[in-house]
Amino acid sequence: MTIVLSSLERVRRSKAIEQAVANRVQRTGDFILRKLAQKQSLLSTTSNGKVLNSAAPLVVGINGAQGSGKTTLVRGLVEFLRARNIATVGFSLDDIYLTHREQQELAEAHRDNPLLQFRGQAGTHDIELGHKTLTALLRNDSAVDIPAYDKSLNGGYGDRVPLPEWQKTTPSVDVVLFEGWSLGFRALDDREFAHFIDQVRKPGGGSVLCKHSRKYSNENLRDINENLVKYEGMLYPLIDAWIYMRVADADVVYRWRKEQEDELAATGRPSLSDKQLEDFVTRFLPAYEMALGKLDKCGFISSGLLPAPDTLRMHLDLERNVVAWDHKF
How many Cβ atoms from other residues are within 10 Å of residue 80's Cβ? Predict the structure, then answer.
């Protein structure tokens, strides 16, 4: 009897999750449709005497912490939009990671910075490739090869897959969905960075909001912050609108990732030990600690083409439930 109840509970939980995902896709999909209509209207006009590219798709950036459900959301949005005959392509910031060789060279050049020894942080992406891909998609006049990355290659260190394995779009794309856990993170200016470091090094252990940054030197943290400037200049101005899956505390990333690893272990698949998981996740958390406050205060950088608000923000609780929606920016 206990087994039957357990099975029923799993079915109920699965249905509840499916409904929550469907609701999330509907809300974000409606936002994208509004922004697409605004851009299509705009493209029939001129800007400073210059005729805009009337074929340019809407580019939507999606930011959400690791484990928040970005991939599931993008998959659902692609289905939602294509069902309405809106040609949609989705890819990730992960897809433009440096090649394995390039990452090795980066790690060697920054041997004193543990944050740059492995992919993930700002500085470990090929920003020129991302810029080239988005620019080609915005021209929308020919097929575009979308980069792809396989994290399982080279013993888990990963590598970009060969060009023939990249996703190839057809012309006339309407919407581009571009997602990443750190996509949209902004560099702190000198004053903001100095304040952040003060919080990290404050006598008595520093601010609890900066606890994961304490194990790294000021120079280590400065490298990551300064690397974001290139993202701000070459990627973000190509993004028209944002969907922000906001979390109140970056520590939830460890919890969500542990749930994923526990599920893998339960099915007999390879998974990280608790120690391996802690080592893995803590490499990413300083970026959250530096970035989340500024995102809440200043919002995202975008193309500036569309009328405000250009960001739909969903607030997630510890169970990934959406507890509120807003358009702060």
Answer: 19
**Segments in the chain forming alpha helices (H):** 2-42, 70-82, 100-109, 127-139, 190-201, 218-234, 252-266, 274-282, 285-298
The two structure tokens encoding residue 276: 């391996």
Task: Output b/e per residue, 245-276; b: 16+ Cβ within 10 A.
Answer: bbbeebbbbbebbbeebeeeeeeeeebbeeee
Task: Name the stretches of the chain with pLDDT < 50.
Answer: 1-5
Output the DSSP codes for 201-240: H-TTT--GGGGGGTTS-HHHHHHHHHHHHHHHHHTGGG--
Could you tell me the two tokens for 138?
Answer: 């915005």
3-state class of 54 per DSSP?
A: coil
Strand order in the sheet with 241-247: 88-92, 175-180, 58-64, 241-247, 311-316, 322-326
pTM of the model: 0.92
**pLDDT tens figures, 240-253:** 999 999 998 888 98
For 278-301, how does the pLDDT look when each residue is reduced to its tens digit (9 = 90+)?
A: 888 888 999 999 999 999 999 999
Residue 265 Cα to chain centre, angstroms:
26
Q: Residue 200 and residue 203: Cα distance in Å, rounded?
A: 9
The DSSP secondary structure of 124-163, one letter per residue, reads: SB-HHHHHHHHHHHHH-SS--EEP-EETTTGGGT-EEPPG
